[in-house]
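stage 2 :: seqdesign
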């Protein structure tokens, strides 16, 4: 049980450290935490090949339609996001991370990714499979909690 507690504490520390990294990135580029989270969510959707529009982004961020419109307008005005019509449904708008945001993110987070890759080179595929299973289980637990806090 002690090892499980230690791993849980390490996960919380990693989460806290990554939030600080996001705040630092945002501060360097005049973005608030919601702006950074929005860019990460849109980029993650793009990488998975999943379309994301303003309403889905609002749901993911827990924001109102008016707030997400202001956020998207702000990020679009500085080139961090692009709105494009859905090629399958011209009434629907899709969001894409702009080239400038990808460049800035690559410059800032590229070093972090290299450091993580270097730090985990000693782990076998089997080790990484166990880490992935643990993280997926932890993510599911957090999502379940958010759906029903307090249970």
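stage 2 :: out
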């Amino acid at each position: 049980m002690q090892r499980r507690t230690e791993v849980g504490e390490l996960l919380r520390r990693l989460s806290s450290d990554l939030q600080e990294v996001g705040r630092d990135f945002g501060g360097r580029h005049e973005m608030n935490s919601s702006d950074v989270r929005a860019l990460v969510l849109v980029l993650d959707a793009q990488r998975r090949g999943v379309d994301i529009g303003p309403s889905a982004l609002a749901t993911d961020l827990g924001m109102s339609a008016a707030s997400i419109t202001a956020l998207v307008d702000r990020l679009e005005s500085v080139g961090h996001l692009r709105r494009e019509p859905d090629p399958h449904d011209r009434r629907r708008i899709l969001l894409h991370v702009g080239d400038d945001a990808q460049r800035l993110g690559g410059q800032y987070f590229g070093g972090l990714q290299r450091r993580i890759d270097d730090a985990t080179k000693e782990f076998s595929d089997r080790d990484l499979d166990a880490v992935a299973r643990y993280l997926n289980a932890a993510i599911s637990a957090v999502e379940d909690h958010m759906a029903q806090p307090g249970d």
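stage 3 :: structure notes
- The helical segments are 2-28, 33-48, 54-61, 65-77, 99-119, 125-147.
- The domain at 20-98 is CATH 1.10.10.10 (Arc Repressor Mutant, subunit A).
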